[in-house]
Sequence to fold (634 residues):
Amino acid sequence: MEALIALAIGVLTGGGVYLTLRARSFSVVLGLTLLSYAVNLFLFATGRLVIGQPPIIGGGAGGAGGAYVDPLPQALVLTAIVIGFAMTAFVIMLALRARSELGNDHVDGKVGP
Amino acid sequence: MSSHGVIAPLLAPFVTGVLLLALPDLPMPLRRRIATFAVLVQIVIASVLLVATSGGDILVYRLGDWPAPWGIVLVADRLAAWLVLTTTLLALFAVIHAGDGTDRRGRHFHVLFQMQLFGIAGAFLTGDLFNLFVFFEILLIASYGLLLHGGGAVRVRAGLHYVVLNLIGSTVFLFAAGLIYASLGTLNMADIARKAAQVTPENLGLARSGGLLLLAVFALKAALLPLFLWLPAAYAHTAAPVAALFAIMTKVGAYAILRADTLLFGAASGPLAGLFAPWLLPLALATLAVGMLGALAAENLRRLAAWLVIASVGTLLTAFALGTAGVAAGLYYLPHGTFAAALLFLLAEALVRRRPASADFFTPEHDMPRHALWGALFFAAAIPSVGLPPLSGFVGKFLILRAALGHPAQAWILTVVLVAALAGVIALARAGSRLFFSTKTVGPVALATPAAAVDVLPGELPDPPGAPREVTAIVGLLGLILVLTVFAGPAVDFAQAAAAQLADPPAYIAAVLGSTAGGGR
Fold:
């Protein structure tokens, strides 16, 4: 499972970085979205990967002090998702605005040679 | 020790912003009065906080009264109070200037302005790394709105770059916070500092990479080399009061670097101590040099002012890299640099309004009305901008140079700082003589000027006779610099006390976590 999660984060980050380096605003927005997915998965993994346990201390099969999933990263991911969602909505609106103001969807506002 | 006063600098702008948002039908003069009054209240609150912390107390406010490493804390020490006061003083003159008509060019200017102040104050006061991320997002999303305020193609293009870069920065911040949490198991800054001393060898690499990613994020916010390229276009194309307020934004990044350098990776942090040290001084000096080169190459005053903001960040972080004496010098220089940068942006706007053909570009133009007044104000603003005596910039630079004496790299520091000061004098002297001395007397108006490239919208430039708000804001900022010069003694004493407090992370840790929390979780 560790390898799978690591691979997923790596592929998402790599794709995100590649897309944000593109010249058109649509791919940049997609890249930012992929990056935010990657970071959400990453944050999720920072509490270490545990299967089948509740995110409550002392609520696991072992009774008080038993195994549990760290609940804090889940709260962080929730916050990060909400913020990332709002920011994506904003940057899409901005990209549309730039498209209409500048007449094209290049991030530099001019069509290349 | 818990004190409700610590949250007041956050509540005042937040409540004002929500109030203005909830009452969209208020007439503009009333909105302006509410906004100005709110900033005045914030100045009073910040002053009270400054007095409360000046004795050396570290005030801690636990949100929801959750005990420290688990709940979020707001922490007011001398440094935070000093920066909050600087922000509110700057905001007063920015909001006065915005009442000149800038705030009519889009909806919700004052709402965004207050939310920006909320985010900045929160970033200075929070004691939690993830909460710092949240406040960064608040101040950034407000700044996106303010940056684009008024619209226009050039502004939208510069804004898109700014927004995308900062979104990437936010992602990297989350990666960094995740790495810190994965390796140290906490996000409370005091707790990070305490746990950093006992980090296990297998987690050391994770913690180090997390810390250096944090440096990268803060360097992006502070516009440190090589992450400064977004700044000139963004600052040069936005509205003047917004650019003036943004003068404090790079200082938020500088503050975060200073806080992380002294607390998270301070002297008491064992294997993580001095994590930023190898990077900070070379990058700061290079930023200063590049900022001044940019200033020399600038073609108009707003771009020149933007490059001087970068140079000012370079100066500030050079100071922060020089140990306690340097931090004290930097903390004295910080408000000065902020006010001086804001002054230049406001002056550039005044020139744009009065030179219809060439705006603030350094090309000859017909004599503008009341040139003696504006020329004198420009001269008065240029002196502090480059740190010439007798104003506070000179005192600040002198203190920085004195702190550099005896440093292993003192030859580099002295050379770069002094040559950069000379370059700044040349750049501003050239700007001033082109703007004010080379006027065309009589003749046809030349249309082939670069003014077409400026984002001046049709109907954007109402020139009210006398422009009292404009002059008030500019003279007010000059007055602040004068106060900082006249009361340089007490201000330097305070900055030294703040630097001494930063050099003692155990006191901060004890204040936040309490003496009983020594046993870990």
Notes: The CA atoms of residues 23 and 31 of chain B lie 9 Å apart. Residues 153-184 of chain B form the longest helix (32 residues). Chain B has a mean pLDDT of 85.
